Amino acid sequence: MSLPMLNGTARLIEDPQLRYGASGGAVVTVRLAFNSRKKDQSGQWVDDATCFLDGKAFGASAENIVESVSRGMEVVVSGRLKTESWEKDGEKRSKTVLMVDSIGPSLRFATAKVSKAGGSGQGRQQYEETRRQTSAEGRQDPWGSGVPGTAPAAGAWDTEPPF
Predict the structure, then answer these.
(1) How many angstroms separate the Cα of 24 from the Cα of each of 18, 37, 84?
(2) Whole-prediction pTM value?
(3) Are the CB atoms for 38 and 21 separated by under 8 Å?
(4) Contact criterion met (CB below 8 Å) for 76 and 55
(5) Which residue of 3, 92, 105, 115 is most buried, as measured by CB atoms within 10 A?
(6) How confident is the model at residue 90, as a pLDDT?
């Protein structure tokens, strides 16, 4: 049986809190408020019930969240609900958290510019260097390989269409 899914629009009530585990992996916690609104008897919109949840994400996603969202922002979030349990002072405690699969700014009242996030490590550096070389070669000869049926070099069509 799988964990229940939650998809919704919420507001961040605190800046995301980033920390690193013992193994060096990034973990972020976001405090989310899901509000419902309704019209009162006079026809005015008023806040109704509110559901507060902590959201958690790991790894590169955690680092991207810290760079992308902040307190007060309306976000669109998707994830799985999970109950975390622990013991404090001999007393068992638990709370429901949202294991965030994806999160981003809501564009209802805002705009956003998206840029692809880079990774880290030597493998990523080698990839970037190869990409730069290939892109430079491709820009010199946009039809690249000269072999029928093969694609041109990466980045060859960054500025102009291939026709």
Answers:
(1) 12, 41, 21
(2) 0.66
(3) no
(4) no
(5) 105
(6) 92
CATH of residue 94: 2.40.50.140
Whether the Cβ atoms of residue 154 and residue 145 lie closer than 8 Å to each other = no
**Would residue 45 count as lying in a domain?**
yes
Counts for the chain of helices (H) and strands (E), in that order = 2, 6
Ranges in the chain, pLDDT < 70 = 118-163
* Domain containing residue 84: 5-105
Token readout for 159 is: 């500025």
Is residue 40 within 8 Å of 60, Cβ to Cβ?
Answer: no
Distance between CA 80 and CA 101 in Å, rounded? 8
| pLDDT tens digits, one per residue of 51-79 | 999 999 999 999 999 999 999 999 999 99
Count the domains in the chain. 1
> Across-strand partners of 17?
29
pLDDT number for residue 138: 46
Are 71 and 112 within 8 A, CB to CB? no
CB crowding 81-106: b at 16 or more within 10 Å, else e: eeeeeeeeeeeeeeeebbebeebbbe
Give the model's pLDDT for residue 78.
97
